[in-house]
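QA checklist item 7 of 12: single-chain prediction sanity check.
[x] sequence parsed
[x] length recorded as 325
[x] structure emitted
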Amino acid sequence: MRIDAAQHTTSLTRLSPLFFTSHFPSSAIHSSLQPQHSEGSLSSTQSAKNMSTKVVLVTGGNKGIGLAIVDALCRQFKGEVYLTARDVGRGQAAVESLASKGLKANFHQLDIDDLNSIKTAATYFKDKYGGVDVLVNNAGIAFKMADTAPFGVQAEVTLKTNYFATRDMLTHFLPIVKAGGRVVNVSSFVSVRALNQCSSALQERFRSEDITEEELSGLMQTFIDGAKKGEHKQGGWPDTAYGVSKTGLTALSIILARRLSKERPNDGILLNACCPGWVRTDMAGPKAQKSPEEGAETPVYLALLPPGATEPHGKFVSDKKVQTW
C-alpha cells in the first residue's frame, strides 16, 4: 500500500525500518510545564551572561526547510542560533555552509528518536543558558510513495518520529522554554486533509477541547495497531501514515498550548503548529511549488512573533494566517 508522502514538507530524517525498535521512547511526561531547575553551575560571571543570552534551537536543521529556517534566523534572531541534527558530520557541514555566507550558527547533536539524546540536549541548554527562548520542531520523516515497506511498518516508523519523538522533545523542552518564548511545530496541510478523511467520531475527538495528551497518544497507537493488522480503514482512519502523524502533531500543539495558558499564564509563551507549504525538498521532489526559503517564511514568522504578542497561540498557521482546524 502507498501513502500520501509526495507533498512532504519537513526536513527529511530518513529512517530504515531496521532502525526502528519495538518500543517507543518513554511516554512519561512532566506533570507540569513549569520551568525545571538545574543543580549544575558555571562560573557566576559566565553563567549570568549565558542566562541573559537569547537562544533558538532548530531540530533537523542540516538541510531542506530546516536549514532554510536556520539561515533566516541567523539573519534575524538577536541571539545564539543552534542547528541540530542527528548526524554530526552533516550538522557541522551545514554550519560551515552557513559560515561561508557570513552567518554564524552553533551545532549540537540531537537525534529526536533517541530519548537519551533529547535529555542530554535539554540538560545542556538548561545548564548553559537557563533554557531556550525559541524551539522549532522541524525534524520529520516520510516514506516515498514508491517505497515497498508494508503499510504497518510505514505507520509505525512515521509516527515514531513525527508524533512520538516530537512529543518527547516537547515533554523535555517545554519546561525549559523561557518566559516570552516561542514554540513552532512544523506540521503540514495534509494534517487537515487527513483529519477530514477520518470518521466523524475521530474528527470529533481530535477537534474537542477536552482531549488530553494521553488520549491523543492512545489514538495514535490505535492507528498503528490497526495499520499493522490492515484494519485501520475499518477503524475510521485514512490511508496515509504521514497525514495521520501530522494530524497528531497539530492536535498535540493545540493541547499543549492550552496547558501552557493554564499552567504558565503570565509567561507569554506562544506555541503553534504550521504548514510551510509544498516545498522542493528531497522528499517532495522538484515539482513542489515553494523553495525551501519560501517554506521557511511561516515557521520563522511564528518563531519571531514580537514581545508582548498574545496570538496566534494554539493555532494551525499557513502562509502566516490562522487556518481552520
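[x] summary fact logged: The chain has a mean pLDDT of 88.
[ ] second reviewer sign-off
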